[in-house]
Amino acid sequence: MEVLRFAMNDPAAYGLPEYRVPADAWRNGLVVRMPNHLGDAVMALPALAGLKKILPKYCGLFVVAPEAFRSFYSELPMVDSFIGLEKAHANWSLYEILLVRKLMAGAGVFFNNSPRDVIAMRLAGVRYLYGTGVRLRSLLLTGSFKFEPQQVPGRRAGEHLCARYLAMAMALGAPPWDGSLPEFRFSRKGDEFGSRISGVCEHPAMLLLGPGAAYGEAKCYGEKNYNRIARWWVEKGGIVAVAGSAAELPTGQEVCAGLPPNKCFNFCGKTGLRELLTLVRFSRFMVCNDSGIMHLGAAVGRPGIALFGSTDPTATGPISPAWRCFVSSAGCSPCFEHACPAGDKHCMAELEVGSVIGEMEKIFGPGRF
Q1: Phi and psi of 264, rounded to 5°?
Q2: Structure confidence by residue, pLDDT tens digits, 53-85
Q3: Structural domains of the chain sorted by starting position, each given as residue range(s) with its CATH number in brackets
Q4: Residue 106, CA distances (Å) to 35, 94, 122, 184, 345 in order
Q5: Rounded (10°) CA dihedral 69, 51, 110, 68
Q6: CB count, 10 Å around CB of 266?
Q7: How sure is the predictor about 7, in pLDDT bands with cuts at 50, 70 and 90?
Q8: How far is the CA of 144 from the CAs of 16, 94, 113, 141, in angstroms?
Q9: pTM of the predicted model over 0.85
């Protein structure tokens, strides 16, 4: 087991071909098809910010992404318009194509690998299109990029996924990333979501836990381990909020088991993305599996600890130096499986909860808040 801090390789090392949108071809701006998963979307934010910098002053930055992420992108001042897709893994509706057409964007960038999105963008009248040339998409793209496979079972990646997004943005003329994260405007306050959430957000020592992972159980550290972390934090004088999907409601109940109901709050399945953003914003610290909640915390600038067993922090670690990654050294890690092939999640069991709490004690000291 080792404790890692986030590191980023030089994205220029890919040697990608350079493309430039002609100065007179931007029309009203650039439309970017962002990833369908929250964690991937967060890792693409530095590249999105870089693309914003190359736009002429009269141009807008437009985002196409799942409708469920509207509240996330609406909090980013750099995004001028958002088009939400009701069915992110299906063909665009005629209405959605027409919405993009009305933007009158001259160029488009794809931070996903779907051919149907390229076809839809063509139908929307966007002329200059750039993205990875997978699944024969290069036939429809103005310029394409090629990367070697990143996930190889049992082997760490040589670079972060964020670096791949950045490499594409830099190939289009964006400047190198300076390490800063995009600004969120946070148009809402914690007290706008009801007394239960507002009371949690008002506490000066709220620990936010993300014990689940949409990818699969293999990523998860275990309810008993999170319960011990929560118990330690409550004994220190803080309160705990547990976040996750509706399917993770039983997980949240087990994390809160035996703790005072006014000290540990299970919000699994009870918050939308906007409420989750608020909980993240007002948290003092976070502990999460490799998940969208982890990436959201890093993007918002909150500190935390991330736990990695079946996945690879060098590829999908949090994009913030305020996070520490506990990484399994098991020989089977990373396997990238949804469920542990051996059935015992040996890689996660190797990460001792006492070591995690010990790291938090180094940060906050042994006394009470």
Answers
A1: -130, 120
A2: 999 999 999 999 999 999 999 999 999 999 999
A3: 8-171 (3.40.50.2000), 190-363 (3.40.50.2000)
A4: 21, 19, 11, 27, 49
A5: 0
A6: 23
A7: low
A8: 9, 26, 11, 6
A9: yes
Token pair recorded at residue 168:
């594409």
What pLDDT is recorded for position 15? 84
Helix (H) or strand (E) holding 363: helix 353-364
The reply to whether omega before 175 is within 30° of 0 (cis) is no
Handedness of CA 150, 156, 158, 164 (dihedral sign): positive
Residues 222-246: b if buried by 16+ CB within 10 A, e if exposed: bbebbbbbbbbbbebebbbbbbbbe
**171 half-sphere exposure, CB direction, 13 A CA radius:** 23
Pairing of strands 285-289, 264-266: unpaired
Q: Which distant-in-sequence residues (6+ apart) come within 8 Å of 172 by Cβ?
A: 18, 19, 20, 21, 51, 54, 109, 130
The token duo for 132 is: 């990875």
Question: CA-CA distance, 85 to 90, in Å (whole number)?
Answer: 9
Percentage of the residues of the chain whose pLDDT score is greater than 70 = 95
Structure tokens that stand for 362 in this block: 């180094």
Cβ within 8 Å of residue 245, ≥6 positions away: 212, 214, 268, 269
- Cα–Cα distance measured from residue 190 to residue 315, given in angstroms and rounded to the nearest whole number: 33
What's 156's DSSP letter?
-
E strands, the chain, in order = 2-5, 29-33, 60-66, 81-85, 107-110, 128-132, 143-145, 206-210, 239-242, 264-266, 285-289, 304-308, 323-327
Question: Per residue in 151-161, pLDDT tens?
Answer: 778 778 778 99
Task: Give, as one character, the DSSP assignment of residue 259.
Answer: S
According to DSSP, residue 174 is labeled P
User: Distance (Å, rounded) from C-alpha 220 to C-alpha 228?
Assistant: 15
